[in-house]
């Protein structure tokens, strides 16, 4: 059941009126549903039950410590792409043996940090990186568990900024060159080759790209095995889309139905790295109407949330549904919902039809639980917003709103400017 729904014209998050949270915590505020997060995670768990697997939540979608703790408690692992994400995953209690580490630009310190932690595996993106990891592991007298991220050249039919598996992308190693890379990896004394990794893109709404890519990866695994290279893990990345508007992405059970037959008899351990499909529709951004401004051609609703709080509309022209926190029957008006930032690209919705709103009204920007807070910034020196987790009738602040002192934390005035 959907956690954000109306009761008597009032929007609720589970059993708490959204208005109540906005009054207590202020706006803008991200609100997440505990039940929805768990339901989405369990949908994966149940779908892949029977197949040895680990679900490694992609922290880039949402790295709030309380949310990570909730997922960790339920057996979730982590897909990290930086030392910072690794630190958060461990802090949240995700066992190091359930952490995979991707990314094209791992630094020496980050590699050492991950080796020290004893992660499940590095998803390596180039031969240079492979040599670096081998060298650092040698220095630390460790063996680095690795997979190579291959690029299967599959079109995920999604936004070009978030498709990563095409030939021209910076990610991974072209699949045709994989064998030679694995042969090099095998020769390096401080690497322990465990598997293959791929991730073809995000917000994918059909099954086909997953199947096509996995077929290529499994056939590579067979080739590698025939060369005596042990492949135990297949990491199929993330990418399953969510409904933002009227998309009908497959359910994890449809995904598993399509791909598990391909894995049959392979004796593989499967890793999945979902991000958006777990947290995206478990969160909303609630913002308040500041002013209404009418230009001859256009009406603007100026809200207190901007592109620094949720950048997806500005960056990808992404559509987020907007719902009034209190429904009204006033006439419909088409307007742009714009933030206070000094940029023309600062909008959360364009040409959107809503029942007329006035100053002080609250609006919920839906599907904001993934790539929302994690992509937010302090642009225009705006403190980053609060985050709240709702569980049944209770709600908990899981990140305090930043204050002005956070804006100068770490700043130093050199002596010569002090006089
Ligand atoms: N694994 C890897 C290696 C990834 O690069 C990503 C996302 C994921 C897993 C998780 O993908 P998901 O299940 O969330 O689709 N900022 C963009 C999305 C960028 C995704 C980058 N990689 C957005 O707001 O749409």
Structural description of this entry:
By secondary structure, this protein is α/β, with parallel strands linked by helices. The radius of gyration is 23 Å and the shape is globular. It has helices at residues 18-25, 34-47, 65-73, 83-91, 108-117, 127-139, 178-187, 208-226, 252-263, 276-279, 312-316, 404-408, and strands at 4-7, 10-13, 16-17, 29-33, 53-58, 77-80, 99-101, 121-124, 144-151, 173-174, 191-197, 233-235, 269-272, 283-294, 299-303, 322-324, 332-338, 347-355, 362-365, 386-391, 394-399. The protein starts with a strand and ends in an 11-residue tail after the last helix. Helices cover 28% and strands 26% of the residues. The structure holds ligand LLP.
Indicate the low-confidence ranges by residue numbers. none
- CATH fold field value of the largest domain: TIM Barrel
Helix content: 25-40%
Total domain units: 2
Q: Figure out the total of helices.
A: 12
Structural class, judged by helices and strands?
alpha/beta
- Tell me the CATH superfamily of the largest domain: Alanine racemase
Mean pLDDT: 96
How far is it from the N-terminal to the C-terminal residue, by CA? 62 Å
Global shape: globular
CATH top-level class of the largest domain: Alpha Beta
Strand content: 25-35%
Largest sheet: 9 strands, mixed
Bound molecules: ligand LLP
Number of E-state strands: 21
Provide the gyration radius in Å: 23 Å
